[in-house]
Amino acid sequence: MTSTSAPLQSNLRSDISRLIQSLKEYILVGGACPIERIRDFEKMFNVSLPKDYQEFLSLYGAISGNQFSIFGFGNEKTGILLSDLILLLRLQYITFSLNFVPIEDLGQGEMACLDCSETGSKSSAVYRVPISKNIGFENTEIISSSFWDYLHTRLTKLKREIEQIETGLAILEQRVKEFQSASNYNHAEGGKLPRNHVWRPYRFCVQDVLLGATVVQHVKGDNFLNVDVFMTEEVPPYEPDSGVKGLTLFLLCEAYKCGGTMEIRFTENVEGGRIPRKIQELAERLQLPIPEKSLSDRRLTPRDSRTLFAALTPFSPEAFARISELNLSIERACYVVQKGIWSLQEAETILLSAVNPDRLFSGGAPTEQRLLYGQDILYGRTTILGGYLDRALSSPQHDLIDSNLEVEDDERSLDIHWLPSASAKIYKCAPAPSETSDHLQIPWTVQGSTVPSQFAFGQQFAVIVRARDGVDICQSIKRDIQLAYELGQKLNQPVFILLPYDFYDPDIFEDKVRLEIIAIANKNGIGLLVCPETSLSLDTQVQLRFNSSRIIRE
Fold it and tell me: Residue 248's Cα: distance from chain center in Å?
């Protein structure tokens, strides 16, 4: 194995000692470990620790900090003991090499490990080891030539990150003061919202947890988004990359909203003007590394931004194909999803069913164009009606008296495919983590229906979405039932028809007429579902979505 010369190791140890001293407010040190404890560990696990790692254990025991932990022998504050960790890995992963000693959890299912196969070695290379695969040397890569090199790199990186955070916080505070002085705006009382060309501070929060903060402005002359602060951190128990994904998506949405070219640049206050390291790492994990030219030019080009936007917006292959086929604006489709104007499934419904999806994403046709306007309203109404059913199906039912238990992130997994020829959705549903039932109850079934509405999870069923008003329902329902019957014969699976609450309008449907329609549906084996929303309330929702879309760019 590659070793480091004695003078260089001595310098590294001195630098490491100074780094640890300068970071004492941000890290915990386990304390000196007796040599007897080290020998007992080697005997218990039949390994020979490299001399440099032994020296670390003797001096520091273990080190723990923010998103940073070097395993060893410390206390409950510095994390899991090395002996407990090795025992756990050897029991859980039978292919874990007996020569590997883990020194840090790298996340994403990988560990930094020392190779302890050479007895009495002065140092060992540090390997990146994927613990979820067959753990042999063929699946590893060397990431440092020695333990001291690795520790020095990690501490230097931590110190640089802390300095960047402190600089970012100071600039953020300055920009917030400038913003409040110029606009006199606060969330409680409101005030004048700033124009895009001035510096605007934003924070990214989930409830009371701050996941990131940024300051941006649109540069008019060169037409790009300028970023003065970009700070984000991993916050357990939120899933990995939550902060950097949220903040990156915000920048991409702002670049589109401001009417620019989608180019994004960073000031000297953000890692010296470079594209932030966390954005680079996120792109690499998405298997779309930022091109070298963009890194050297210190900017995200419009092409880079669009690629990243598309990768972070999980459209189905069919939706992406439709975007390509119609030559649609990919950034507009991504924006309406990421800003919550349309949900992902709603946006896919529009993409796969509407004649002109881009017009709906842009706010629909003007009222003066009556035929196009009416068409867009109907597409929007159908989309929102289907979205209500998506949310009802994704919400688990719990056996509590007169109540549904709502648990954050406790949702059923829905696999949805849109069938444009029938304006139908094909559903397959998996239970939520908290559910104990083996069956899915279809919501909103009309009273008097004899069609089964309870299925095993995983069974497919189809729902024809008919967002008609009362008069149209009365005129078309029998034809829709016949279409649903033919679709059921073709797909060989249960079929339902989803209607607005207009089906219960007494001014249009007398009880006798309504019962007759239910009887026809029963005879054909078609279930009728009636959403609690009327066509009028759906139209109001469509108008709100269209209005939100129209004002997105200055």
Answer: 11
Q: Is the pLDDT of residue 93 over 90?
A: no
State whether 236 and 378 are in the same domain: no
Q: What is the DSSP letter of 60?
A: T
Average pLDDT on 237-266 reads 92
| Two structure tokens written together for 324 | 């390509």
User: Which domain covers residue 214, as residue numbers?
Assistant: 195-312
pLDDT at 134 over 80: no
Looking at the predicted structure, is the pLDDT value of residue 39 above 60?
yes
The whole-chain average pLDDT of the chain stands at 88
CA neighbours closer than 13 Å in the CB half-sphere of residue 548? 16
Q: Do β-strands 100-107 and 209-219 pair in parallel, antiparallel, or remain unpaired?
A: unpaired
In a domain, 178, yes or no: no
The secondary element (H helix, E strand) that includes residue 265 is strand 264-266
Q: Is the dihedral of CA 498, 504, 509, 515 positive or negative?
A: positive
The reply to whether 331 falls in a domain is no
Which residues make beta-bridge pairs with 144?
126
Which structure tokens are listed for 462? 């189809």
Q: Are 451 and 522 in contact, with CB atoms under 8 Å apart?
A: yes
Q: Please list the alpha-helical segments (H only) found in 260-301.
A: 277-285, 292-297
pLDDT band at 189 (very low <50, low <70, confident <90, very high): confident
Number of domains in the chain: 3
Q: If residue 127 lies in a helix (H) or strand (E), which one and from where to where?
A: strand 126-130
Q: Is residue 345 part of a domain?
A: no
Residue 258: give its domain's CATH number.
Answer: 3.40.630
Do 200 and 143 lie in one domain? The reply is no
pLDDT in tens, 230-242: 999 888 778 888 9
Q: Are residues 362 and 507 in the same domain?
A: yes
Do 475 and 533 fall into the same domain?
yes
- CA–CA distance, 139 with 136 (Å, rounded to integer): 6
Mark which of 156, 185, 203 sits at the end of a domain.
156
* Co-location of 524 and 377 in the same domain: yes
1: pLDDT strictly greater than 80: no
3-class DSSP state for residue 176?
helix
379 and 448 share one domain: yes
- Check residue 2 and give its pLDDT: 45
Q: Is 346 contained in some domain? A: no
pLDDT of residue 403: 46
> Within this chain, do residues 385 and 496 fall inside the same structural domain, yes or no?
yes
Asked whether residue 376 falls in the same domain as residue 523, the answer is: yes
Alpha-carbon span 361 to 356, nearest angstrom: 9
Give the pLDDT confidence score for residue 302 in this predicted structure. Answer: 96
Task: Assess contact for 218 and 260: CB atoms under 8 A.
Answer: yes
Task: Give CA–CA dist 395/125, Å, rounded.
Answer: 50
Q: Quick one: which H or E segment has residue 141?
A: strand 141-144
SS3 515: helix
